[in-house]
Each structure stands twice: as structure tokens, then as C-alpha cells.
């Protein structure tokens, strides 16, 4: 039989219509992932002098390690999206549509069918991941970073293991999900589960360390982390569950009810294969409370995203438009993006600082950090001493080989606009990102498009896709 003999090839092209061979599309998808990761790396480089350099230095360094480390996390997000979008083709949802039952009755071995489906999906994942990995390395060569071969195999294995674990978990959950919608929820949950597992078992401190990752055997050191042992047990266990569970449920056939053999006082109920909802055949049923809640939550989240994005843009524009004597004041607080390292460690570069707006009657104390105007420019320095009408200020941080106290100066009390009250490093990084081209697109162009086409988008996502 042609269909029987080409079952493995059918699985390889399953997610695409018209039965076209999908290898070229998978390679194109992999190229996109490599280019997207590389572009995202450049976006992060624009945030070099921000809190991200302290929190996630592994993706901020000028090295092959950073670009590849970023790629192996980006590919997980896209593969999960790919799984969710084509869930009813890629996983075992087809068993409930009697696809396996008919093949088994034709003499096809369910064990062979299981392994064909598993290997086809894993082959696709490995192909996409490997091509994208190679593309990322090639693109990084253009930056002329120092090439260190030692951690490349280790990083490759780390990303591949995560993808294989997510794949086998998604396949296992698909055997127990009664609807496509629930199965997609479980697929998304697998990514969260793997992330929680890596965090709980201390895997991230290992894979984010360039020294550790240059030694391949570090991954399997149980004294550092048991993630690989636990992951291997999960993969083997899920594989066995899938094998026996898929073989058992494939024996059952879901027979559609025949209206001619039903009693006159009975009605036929149709179960939606995607949502699991029931409705009477031939009748129009009003949307249930769950559907209304989902619509309300979706609309609310869309409105919140648009409002927040536009608010961030307005806030950034107003701050950028501030001039000495006309600073933005929000309920007596002056937000100010500090773009110097002169006040470290109290205030770091690109922090969003807050200054309490004061008048001439406010008593400034020695040791306070102030925002003041001099020669039509704004400065932030610390008060070291004061006289009746003047203040002596100085910076906190002098670079090595600099003369301490060289920046000390006397200013007029009348030029002080505010007293330092706090800072937020994350908001500072957000404003820095919002000033980039990508930030402008995300926070201004995308909300504008969503706002203009929200009606069409709503109709698209509400379409019945059960066919």
C-alpha cells in the first residue's frame, strides 16, 4: 500500500496542506530563527549599559556564547508556538479522529506507527534546530568575535535536550487531552514545566557559565545538577507511556450517531473536536459563559497592551522633551534618566531616577543627592557642604587615575530643582529600549495596527477551525 509504505514521509509533511514536501519550509523556518536571534542580540546590545548587563550578562557579552545562548532559548519559544499552531496534525489528536483505527484494521502495526510519528516529529525538530544553530554561528562570524569551539557542542546539546524533552512531554499530554484546545494548553504548559525543572535543579547557573560550558562532562556532573538524569528518566517514561497508551486507544472507534436509528424523542449532540463543547445538531446554541469570559479576557488584555504601549511612548517622549526649568513633574516627583556613571554605585548609568520637587524654602542637608541646573544644563551630584546661599557639590565616582575632588564645585541654591528619592533600573532599561527603532515599532506601530485592525483580528480568531 502506498499510504502504508509512506507513513513516515507523511508525518514529515503533516503540518502543511496539499501534501507538499515540507523540508524546504522547515529550512526556511530555521533560517528565520537564526536571523531573528541574531537581530535580537543586536537589540540587547543597545541596552548594554543597563540592568540587563547585571541580570543576564550571558546574553550581553560580545561573544559566540551570547548569540548561541540566546538562540537556544528563542528556538524553544518558536517551536512551542509551532506545536500549538499545528497541534492536531503533529500529535496524537488524530487517534480520536479514527485515523489509526482504520490503519490498524488494514494490518498496520501500531508500534511502528508510534515510532514513525515520534521519529518524524523529532527529525523535524532536530533539522530546524540544527540549521538555525549553524546559521547563528555563521552570522556571528561576521562580528569577528573570538571563536571558541569548546562550548559549541555543549550549547548545542543543551538546546537539543530541552526541545526533545518538550516534544515527548507534549506527545504524552496529547494522549490524555480530550480536546484540541486542552491539548494546546498542555503543550504551552510543557515549556513552563521544563523551565521550572531547570530552575529547581540548578541547571541555569551551569549553562550560563562560559567556563563550565567549555567542559562537555560538566553537564552530566550530578554534584552540580541532576537535570540530565531527571530529564532522561522523564523521556524514557513518557516514551513507554506513549507506546502503550497510543496502542490501546487506537483500538477504539468513535462511531458517529445515525439519526435514522435513534428514537423520535431523542436528539443528536455534536461535540466540537477542538473545544469539546456540545451543541444540538440543527440548532443554534448561544455562546456559553466560558466563551464569553474568554472573549472578555482577550479583549481586556488587548486593550491593556495597547494602552500600556502608548503610555510608555508618551512617557518617553515627554521625558526626552524635558528641558532645564521645564522638567516633567508627576505629583511632585521629577523622573530623570541618568546617563552618566559619576554617581555609582548609588545611581548607575541609564537608571530612571526620581527626584522630589522642592521650592526655595526646603532645607537641603549635607549628603543628599540633588538635581540642579547650571549653564542651562541639568546635573546630578551630592551635597558635601553648604553655606547660606550656596551649595558645594561633588560626584561620587572618579575613574582610576583621576584626581579626587577635581569635579567639586559651588552652585547657587536657587538652581536646585529636586532632591533624590529613589531609582528604578528596569524602567530605565525599558525607556532605553523604547528609544531604539525596534522599541518604537513595538510600542507605537504595533499598538496602532492592533487598534486599527482589532475588528478583523477578532473575527479571524473567532472563526471555526474545526474543519
Automatic annotation (TrEMBL):
Keywords: Membrane, Transmembrane, Transmembrane helix. The chain crosses the membrane at residues 27-48, 68-90, 111-142, 148-173, 185-206, 226-244, 296-319, 426-453. Signal peptide: none annotated. This is Peptidase S24-like protein. It comes from Desulfosporosinus meridiei (strain ATCC BAA-275 / DSM 13257 / KCTC 12902 / NCIMB 13706 / S10).
Amino acid at each position: 500500500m502506498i499510504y502504508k509504505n509512506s507513513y513516515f514521509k507523511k508525518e514529515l509533511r503533516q503540518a502543511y496542506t496539499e501534501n507538499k514536501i515540507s523540508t524546504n519550509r522547515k529550512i526556511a523556518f530555521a533560517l528565520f530563527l537564526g536571523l531573528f536571534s541574531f537581530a535580537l542580540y543586536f537589540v540587547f546590545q543597545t541596552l548594554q549599559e543597563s540592568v540587563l548587563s547585571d541580570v543576564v550578562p550571558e546574553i550581553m557579552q560580545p561573544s559566540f556564547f551570547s548569540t548561541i545562548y540566546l538562540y537556544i532559548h528563542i528556538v524553544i519559544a518558536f517551536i512551542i508556538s509551532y506545536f500549538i499552531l499545528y497541534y492536531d496534525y503533529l500529535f496524537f489528536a488524530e487517534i480520536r479522529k479514527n485515523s489509526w483505527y482504520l490503519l490498524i484494521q488494514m494490518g498496520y502495526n501500531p508500534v511502528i506507527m508510534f515510532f514513525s510519528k515520534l521519529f518524524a516529529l523529532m527529525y523535524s525538530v532536530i533539522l530546524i534546530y540544527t540549521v538555525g544553530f549553524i546559521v547563528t554561528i555563521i552570522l556571528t562570524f561576521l562580528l569577528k568575535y573570538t571563536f571558541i569551539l569548546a562550548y559549541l557542542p555543549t550549547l548545542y546539546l543543551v538546546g537539543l535536550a530541552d526541545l526533545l524533552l518538550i516534544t515527548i512531554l507534549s506527545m504524552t499530554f496529547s494522549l490524555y487531552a480530550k480536546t484540541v484546545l486542552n491539548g494546546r494548553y498542555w503543550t504551552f504548559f510543557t515549556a513552563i514545566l521544563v523551565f521550572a525543572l531547570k530552575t529547581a535543579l540548578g541547571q541555569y547557573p551551569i549553562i550560563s557559565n562560559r567556563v563550565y560550558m567549555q567542559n562537555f562532562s560538566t553537564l552530566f556532573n550530578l554534584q552540580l545538577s541532576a537535570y540530565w538524569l531527571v530529564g532522561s528518566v522523564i523521556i524514557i517514561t513518557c516514551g513507554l507511556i506513549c507506546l502503550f497508551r497510543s496502542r490501546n486507544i487506537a483500538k477504539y472507534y468513535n462511531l458517529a450517531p445515525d439519526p435514522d436509528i435513534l428514537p423520535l424523542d431523542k436528539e443528536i449532540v455534536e461535540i466540537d473536536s477542538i473545544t469539546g463543547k456540545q451543541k444540538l445538531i440543527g440548532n443554534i446554541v448561544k455562546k456559553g459563559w466560558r466563551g464569553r469570559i474568554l472573549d472578555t479576557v482577550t479583549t481586556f488584555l488587548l486593550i491593556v497592551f495597547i494602552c500600556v504601549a502608548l503610555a510608555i511612548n508618551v512617557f518617553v517622549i515627554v521625558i526626552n522633551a524635558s528641558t532645564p526649568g521645564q522638567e516633567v513633574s508627576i505629583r511632585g516627583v521629577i523622573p530623570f534618566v541618568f546617563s552618566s556613571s559619576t554617581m555609582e554605585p548609588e545611581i548607575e548609568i541609564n537608571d530612571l531616577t526620581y527626584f522630589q520637587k522642592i521650592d526655595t524654602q526646603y532645607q537641603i542637608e549635607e549628603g543628599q543627592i540633588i538635581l540642579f541646573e547650571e549653564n542651562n544644563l541639568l546635573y546630578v551630584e551630592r551635597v558635601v557642604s553648604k553655606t547660606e546661599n550656596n551649595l558645594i557639590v561633588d560626584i561620587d565616582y572618579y575613574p582610576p587615575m583621576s584626581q579626587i575632588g577635581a569635579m567639586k564645585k559651588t552652585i547657587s541654591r536657587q538652581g536646585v530643582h529636586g532632591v533624590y528619592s529613589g531609582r528604578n533600573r528596569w524602567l530605565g532599561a525599558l525607556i532605553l529600549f523604547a528609544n531604539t527603532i525596534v522599541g518604537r515599532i513595538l510600542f507605537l506601530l504595533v499598538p496602532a495596527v492592533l487598534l486599527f485592525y482589532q475588528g478583523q483580528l477578532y473575527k479571524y480568531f473567532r472563526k471555526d477551525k474545526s474543519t
